[in-house]
Amino acid sequence: ILMMEAKEELPKGVIAKIVREHTPKGVQVTEGFKRGVLACSTGLVGMLTIKLKELMEEKKKKMMQPPDVIDALKELGFPESYIIAASACLSSVEENNQRHRDRKKAVKQQKKIINTEEMRMKQQQLFESARQESEEPVHAAFEVIKPETEDEEDSDDEFTLDDAN
Q1: CB under 8 Å to 87, separation ≥6 — which residues?
Q2: Phi/psi of residue 33, each to 5°?
Q3: Which residue did the predictor score with more confidence, 131 or 22?
Q4: In the list 8, 51, 120, 164, which could disulfide-bond 72, CB 3.0-4.6 Å?
Q5: C-alpha angle with apex 140: 137 to 142, nearest 5 degrees?
Q6: Nearest to 83 by CA among 95, 72, 92, 93
Q7: Distance of CA 79 to the CA centre of its chain
């Protein structure tokens, strides 16, 4: 018989909740009963884990998967009715896991779409900003100097070498 150390117990709150949910109305449960269920549950998980480890070594597998749990239950001699119930439970868990993965994938895809749309909108804003800047007059410091006309060339303001003498 497998005895687990006290530090390797299942969470007491989880076991108490399961007991509460499955206890008929009007039936009281003692603390001793709760401790007994906790000890049995912890022992069951320990036995199952040890059997799973043995099966993994025999099959030379490195990853435990839901069907391995069913194999371990069979190896431990659990009745067929329990194995059927455990199989249904594992199927339900796998369906929930798949829904969770699908939701996660959908959220990721939605974020990707949003990010793509945000980037497209930002690009359009930058294009519009560049268009507006190209249509604005050039700042005075960067104005193009116009060539002088003939009238301006004859101006008295012009300095020549002849004037220097």
Answers
A1: 70
A2: -65, -45
A3: 22
A4: 51
A5: 90
A6: 72
A7: 39
Bigger pLDDT: 45 vs 132? 45
Q: For residue 44, how many other CB atoms are within 10 A of its CB?
A: 15
**Nearest alpha-carbon partner for 85 in 102, 107, 69, 98:** 69
Measured from the Cβ of residue 42, the count of other Cβ atoms closer than 10 Å reads 19
Give the contacts of 38 (CB within 8 A, at least 6 positions apart).
9, 10, 12, 15
Euclidean distance between CA atoms 68 and 51, whole angstroms: 10
Contact predicate 75/55, CB 8 Å = yes
pTM, entire model? 0.55
pLDDT tens readout for residues 54-95: 999 999 999 998 899 999 999 999 999 999 999 999 999 899
66 contacts 94 by C-beta, under 8 angstroms: yes
